[in-house]
Specification:
This protein is mainly alpha-helical. The protein has one domain. Helices cover 70% and strands 0% of the residues. It is built from two helices and no strands. The radius of gyration is 31 Å and the shape is rod-shaped.
């Protein structure tokens, strides 16, 4: 859990050196850091999203099992007398 903070510190240190040498502006360095953080948060949020997707797929499979279920219980009374067949 400490690795991202160490990585940001290294980027700040190295970027600071480049700013002092005039090879990089402060705006470019801060833009890079903020974009890196945003990309990191996006990458981390993929895991829970995929978990929810697979849970949803499992639920859909279960719903299809219920829909496709065929009754095996036969009615105990003659239901034909309740039908209104005029054929």
């Amino acid at each position: 859990m400490i690795f991202p903070y160490i990585l940001i510190a290294v980027v700040l240190w190295y970027g600071g050196l480049k700013v002092q040498q005039g090879k990089l502006s402060v705006g470019e360095l801060s833009s890079f850091i903020f974009m890196s953080i945003q990309t990191g948060f996006s990458a981390v949020s993929i895991g829970p999203g995929l978990t929810q997707l697979y849970q949803g797929l499992g639920a859909v499979d279960r719903i299809y099992e219920i829909i496709d279920f065929e009754e095996t219980i036969e009615p105990s009374i003659d239901v034909s007398i309740y039908k209104n067949d005029e054929t």
